[in-house]
Design a protein that fits this description.
Length: 44
Amino acid sequence: MAEHKQGSMDIKAQEKTFAGFMRMVSWGGVIIVALLIFMALVNA
């Protein structure tokens, strides 16, 4: 079994996936807040 050397793994795919996830969560939060404001304005 090969020894693990910390910091030697290529993590570009994980970084790209995490960035996409954070972008999705951010946009989801903005959409939810906008929806709540819209609902408050129209007295839903």
